[in-house]
Task: structure prediction
Amino acid sequence: GRRVSAGASSSSSSSNPWDAFLRFSRASVAALAILISVESGLDDVVLGSQALATSLPPSRSAASLAAEEDAVVNIFRENTPAVVNITNLQQVLARSGGSLDMTDVPVGTGSGFVWDNEGHVVTNFHVIKGASMVKVTLINKETFDARVVGYDDDKDIAILKVEGVKPSDLVPVRLARSDKLLVGQQVYAIGNPFGLDHTMTGGIVSGLGRVIQSQSGRPIRGAIQTDAAINPGNSGGPLLNRYGQLIGVNTAILDPSGKGANVGVGFAIPVDTVKGIVDQIIKYGRIVRPYLGITLAPDGALAQLGKKGVLILDVPDNSPAAGILQPTYRSFTGIVLGDVITALNGHPIETSADLFSELDDLRVGDSVTLSLERNQVQEEVSVTLGSKTTTFES
Result:
């Protein structure tokens, strides 16, 4: 046969019928090869500028993806029996047969979780606040009366005791520790909102050591921030790690709209804090906290005067600070400002939250040094912390 020169001109090759035949044959073979490749699913043929999608290596194998999904599904299956629905009932006046009677009506619901085989359930204080009666619904849809064993409104934690439930129907959560958490770890939030079936959302630890405000206005330190959605009705439910262990109690979301919308910023009270509160209430029936025994002015009062610190309004006669700190009072010439606390043990105090945070790290009987502004003069005084005890009926 005749070899076709690559440098042959188009005019010379087109004049030869054999050249035309060879060009047609080659084009037909190429077209046939492409057609066969497409039909047979071969992934090494490029059509134009697009490669077949199957030519790209998968980011992970189907087996590994299934294993990850199975792990999450197992977390849900193993922990939903521990998560309960809590209904807050409050007494209201209702007309019945021409008369007004007190009746219990549901005013809110939330989630909680079984703490032990004795029937203790942990939830948020704000879930049961103001309740005249509390109902707890288990995963088997059975509903029981529950009494409030105790609570710490400063930390938004409450402990209930389910009445009449069989221990065999209770599945307690497994506890982890929160002091070793790292940003980026996987977390899962489970809730039982509105008495419907359980829900689960996932995310990561977005931040640690956050400070949020409790129902009492005092700060909750060390809160866990997560992007796992904490939807309405999920408050009081558990936040779990990838092993299905409790690392926190879901308590709040950042809601700029004020309409309960989730913007991917949720907060949980760390389990180390929760465990200390729950153990103290179950074992001793009370909460004991160190305190100075003073009444503070709203933080904005000093800000209007261009000052930093916390202003003392009152010092009761029987408080640890009686005779040491000076309250605000009214004189013939006007209002005389009391002491302004600017530091505690050398740590700056600019707001009441700063003061409460410092007190959280101390114990009853500790002696603290307070830096004050008194009558526009800087002073230092020492106060021995007393105990503020909240006792709950057994």
The longest strand covers residues 99-114.
